[in-house]
Amino acid sequence: MTSLNKKLFRDLWHIRGQALAIAVVIAGGIATLVMALSAVDSLQETRRAFNEQYRFAHVFAHAKRAPNWVAKEIAAIPGVQRAEGRIAQDIIIDVANMPEPARGRVVSREAEGQSRLNDIVIRRGRDLRRAHPNEVLVNEAFAQAHGLQLGDIIHGNFNQHRRGLRIVGVALSPEFVYAIGPGDVVPDSRHFGVLWMSREALEAAYDLKGAFNNLTLTLSRAGSLADVIVQVDRLLAPYGGIGAYGRADQLSDAFVTSEMEQLEHLAVVIPPVFLVIAAFLFNVVIARIIQADREQIGLLKAFGYSYIDVGWLYLKLVLLITALGIFIGWSTGAWMGYAVTGLYRDFFRFPFLHFQVDSSTLAISACVGIFSAVIGTLSIVRRAVAIAPAVAMTPPMPSAYQASIIENLGLAQFLSQPARMIVRYIFRWPLRAMLTITGIAFSVAILVMSLFFFDAVGKMMEVHFFETERQDMSLTFVELRTDALRYNIDDLPGVLLVETFRIARAKLRLGHREERVAIRGLDADMELSRLVDINDRVVTPPPEGIILSSTLAKLLAAREGDIVTVSALEGRRRVRQLPVVRIIRQYIGLGAYMDRRALNRLMGEGDIISGAHLSTDRRIEPALYSALKGVPALLGLAVRRAALKTFSDMIEQHLHTMIFFYLTFAALIAVGVIYNSARISLSERARELASLRVLGFTRREVGAILAGELALLTFVALPLGCLAGYGLADLLVKLFDTKLYRLPLYIADATYGYAVLMVIAATIGSAWLVLRRVAALDLIAVMKTRE
Amino acid sequence: MEEDGKHAGESRTPVFRTVNLTKVYRGDGNDVWALRGIDLALHEGEIVVLLGPSGSGKSTFLNILGGLDHPSSGQVFFRRQELTAFDDNALTLYRRDHIGFVFQFYNLIPSLTARENVALVTEIAANPLTPEAALALVGLEDRMDHFPAQLSGGEQQRVAVARSVAKRPDVLLCDEPTGALDSATGIGVLAAIEGVNRELGTTAVIITHNAGIAAMADRVIAFADGRIAGISVNEERLPAHAISW
User: Fold this and answer.
1) Which residue of B has its CA nearest to A779?
2) How far is A238 from A440, CA to CA, in rounded Å?
3) Do residues B56 and B209 touch, judged by C-beta distance below 8 A?
4) CA torsion sign, B31 to B34 to B38 to B44?
């Protein structure tokens, strides 16, 4: 090894604590990047393979009853590769050992696997057999949630007839990777199941012989989604078609996409924070090393080493530390990616999930790591090697100080001499102080941002379940019933309050923008399901006009007062112009609301309801459940308590892991920044501090100068960090704004409190590490050496 | 102090008394003896110059007197107290209350002005001079609000002297105070030390390589190889201004 390299390694060993701190910060950035990208790659590849292998459709459409030949016509539309009609229906499932009825989606399956689209993977058991109409396949999540075994019997209400079904197999489908019930906020595998039954059995049950009510198709390579949808809608309209949609609006697929987008956003937002801070740290640490090495640099150059030799020496130091960071980042990132992918394996239902870390992910992450390190140090190294040897070997001028701004403002009289030392030192190196403040602020910001997820999701839940959807249960019915049905429901045991609603599918159009929505018709005096505006005021649907959620309004570029074209997709398929009377804030889904009677007039079908919200007496709920199981018209049942539990379970599993990672990172940044800052301060001021010790200052008093400086910087950084945290949260809110849901920009006061306390703890910890060294200051050696 | 009675015949009482003081730096097989049994008494109000080549042990001796270092064996008495029995905290307080240091490389706090460098000490001292009075003592009354970077080497060293004497120390320990200065500036600094000795009666111990400085001392103690090689007494002290080198 050359002497220069020996020097390199010894220097590295000498600054090992600081080097490790920087490497860890780099590792944080690299790890997040590798985690997010590897999880996205793994999910994407898994989804692609699953969708392709099992021929997941591109377009989905529902109708009332369309003859089979229509499917053939649709298959002949240019751009359609294959189209299949089938029967799909929402039903109520009765599972032994669960008092409340579950909701289900039953889908027809051609006997002996003749279906070409949306095929299923049979995980256990076997496929359906011809001429066994009571055989059923259930989705894996539902089977697991209830411990269902092959041969078990479950009951379903088919077209008002209760029927026992024998489970012959457990299956997965690309259509239900994210098996979420209609109107649910999160998948609840206990209360929502997917059943596959033979086409013949369902044709008989729903009186659809020679017809279908659901159609899916795949596009050929050249097929245009928009054009095909127009054609499908045209062909299905006479048969009660309610509008075809693509994968982007297919609930399961849209959720998977949304999750992957979230991960990608994290990969964009978080790593730069780490890498910028790493560049900062490199900048100050290398600047300090080079300053201390000034004479050596002069000497090396005097000996005849070139600028490049000397510059490369310091760059190598930077690259070694970076390499360590990259290595740590790769391995933790891969481990975290594996953990996160594991979470998705439980969350999504894929038959296989291959975890993979692309070499391109590794290469990209290494490149950004090296890039940030070199950016952070190049100018310093260049400046250092450019000094003429003779100049380098003379000591630098003593640092010129001046009274700081604070003192010039007349505050000097309040400052002791040590306090002045602190303030002037900070103002003497304002850039470095700013970097330290920025670093500390970022760690506060990351903490605020991570904890913000809990606040936002909590707020979302609060608004959804406690301010707007306050009903204990929601029922939906097989057919549109007259409002008189509400009195029948009112008579059921334990029902305290009934409020009915109407749901009708329609297309809303404003200018060239169009959205397919379910318009909800509400009564003006509703107590349970309410609309609440941004200012927490209850909004009642006026007799005319339509209320839009802010997201829907944004998609349509609609403002209050605009006239939207509403094309009903049900009933008489009327088209009406309606004014937008109000825009309300809503965190889940795309909401459109009207007065129920006005909606019914629009549909032209009389006094009709689609469902009812109930307030119930919890003590006699079991009686209500068994009564409901006997209501033939019941199509769906959502229980608020169950939804809340599912939601908090999901947060428990999902969010906690992610947030644990970010909390760790934030702590690492805080410690990395503060430790380095304190170490540099100590090394630069060893002489001053030793002087103070010689003058009779105690260790505690000398330590207080270092600690005071850190405390002051931290104190300034904390509010900035809270502000930056708010900014990051705002950025995430904007990035996570999807059709499915959006996060409220709500940060609880306690979140700022926790973030601040954690960073203060990190400051104290790092300060303690450095302050131990004050005790070890060699008074004699320091006093004897030249500055 | 028991010595008071025993040495009643001597004109001055000892500030420091050392008994068989040794200092060994332990190395891998080759120990370095910095001090090999020093027995010495230094008296109130005298100026003592320690002369000797590099490595003769004079700095080690001074550092031990100042509570910056511990001897390997032997005892040091500061007046009635045994310094060698002090722990780190007691030594810190001892330095704070009794000792002023002047080093070759000034060791001023660059972020504090001349006045503030002095105030640094007066703020923690029991009965200090004002910073202004201390700076006047060294002739810097009109440079008080300058930062170290704005002062010449001699001025910086005079600030260091002012800072050391501002708390009215019992002893001023100076390690090569003129080592980094030219002759004229150095004499200014020595004059400041002499003035403090005269005005406040502060005992001063000055380490130097420069034999010329010995003329301003009451006693000159020569160190060689960790031992005292000789002690000479000047019947008549020369004023600092009369010295030249």
Assistant:
1) B68
2) 64
3) no
4) negative
**Rounded CA separation B240/B154 (Å):** 15
Other Cβ atoms closer than 10 A to A100: 21
Residues of A in contact with B89 (CB under 8 A): 698
Question: What is the rounded distance in angstroms from the CA atom of residue A716 to the CA atom of residue B85?
Answer: 45
Q: Is A696 in Cβ contact with B105 (below 8 Å)?
A: no
The CA distance from B119 to the nearest CA of chain A, in Å, is 7
User: What is the Cα–Cα distance from A593 to A597, expressed in whole angstroms?
Assistant: 12
Tell me which residue of A85, A114, A74, A73 sits closest to A216, measured CA to CA: A85
Of B122, B116, B120, B166, whose CA–CA distance to B145 is shortest? Answer: B116
> Is the Cβ of A412 closer than 8 Å to some Cβ of chain B?
no
The answer to whether the pTM exceeds 0.90 is: no
Query: Could you tell me the two tokens for A744?
Result: 């409220």
Residue A469 near residue A746, CB atoms below 8 Å: no
E strand or H helix that includes residue A510: strand A495-510
Domains of chain B: 43-70+85-242 (3.40.50.300)
The tokens for A536 are: 């927490």
Tokens found for residue A158: 């088919």
A7-32 tens-digit pLDDT: 888 888 888 888 898 898 889 889 98
Q: pLDDT tens, B33-52? A: 899 999 999 999 999 999 98
Distance from CA of B68 to the nearest CA of A (A): 7
| Angle ∠(A737,A738,A743) on CA atoms, nearest 5 | 45
**Rounded Cα gap, residues A312 and B151, in angstroms:** 38
CB A687 within 8 A of CB A782: yes
Measured in degrees and rounded to the nearest 5, phi and psi for residue B100 equal -115, 135
Using CA of residue A525, residue A529, residue A532, residue A536, what is the dihedral sign? positive
CA dihedral for A148, A149, A152, A155, sign (positive or negative):
positive
Q: What is the separation, in whole angstroms, between the first and last Cα of chain B?
A: 41
Taking only the tens place, the pLDDT of each residue in A311-331 is 888 899 999 999 999 999 999
Cβ atoms of A353 and A345 closer than 8 Å: yes
Distance from CA of A703 to the nearest CA of B (A): 14
Confidence of residue A72 (pLDDT cuts 50, 70, 90): very high
Q: How far is A686 from chain B (nearest CA, A)?
A: 11
The whole-angstrom separation of Cα A579 and Cα A562 is 6
| pLDDT at residue B202 tops 80 | yes
Position B51: which residue type? L
Residue B35: C-alpha distances to residues B24, B60, B62, B88, B210 (Å): 7, 8, 11, 21, 21
pLDDT (average), residues A770-784: 77
CB proximity list for A52: less than 8 A, separation 6 or greater = none
Contact A417 B123 (CB under 8 A): yes
Per-residue model confidence (pLDDT) at position A481: 66
State the Cα–Cα distance between residues A375 and B168, nearest whole angstrom.
53
CA-nearest residue of chain A to B116?
A: A417
CB atoms within 10 A of CB A46: 23
pLDDT > 60? residue A460:
yes
Phi, psi of B76 (to 5 degrees): -125, 130
Cα(A629)–Cα(A634) distance, integer angstroms: 8
Looking at per-residue pLDDT, the higher value among A129 and A479 belongs to A129
Q: Which of A417, A688, A694 sits opposite B116 (nearest CB)?
A: A417
Q: Does B105 touch chain A (CB under 8 A)?
A: yes
Dihedral sign computed on CA atoms, order A225, A230, A233, A236: negative
Query: Taking a C-beta distance cutoff of 8 angstroms, is the pair A562, A509 a contact?
Result: no
Minimum-distance CB partner of A694 among B88, B95, B148: B95
**Mean pLDDT (whole number) for A97-111:** 87
